[in-house]
Amino acid sequence: MSEYTQGIASDGATILKDGQPMTPEEIVKELQHGRRHAEGFNYLCGAIEQLEEIVGINTGGMNGPGPLLNAAEKMANECYLMRSKLEAIGRLCPTHFDDREQLLGAITRILRGQFPDNEEGEP
Known about the structure:
about 120 residues; mainly alpha; three-stranded antiparallel β-sheet; about 55% helix; disordered C terminus
């Protein structure tokens, strides 16, 4: 990372980058570069705040994004498991069961994580 200081040139004060005088064009370029990075950082902070709202935790900007990303990953895994359960329920065809109680029992077992052994969804 560069170090910026001030110095004195023959015609007055100057800005130094790592001990070397900078031209006005170089100074403007550095300021614009810094502004772009600041805008990107602000956008990232806003995105993290939105993700914290979705996930339901507030890190307050502490501990970096780790806890937030862990919570988001947990939610994604839970969604995947729920999707698997819904797919298993969808494979159950009411014609495989003699009555409503058998169907409800099979759905209850799936929701508890006890998936049928075969792809047809027979109990």
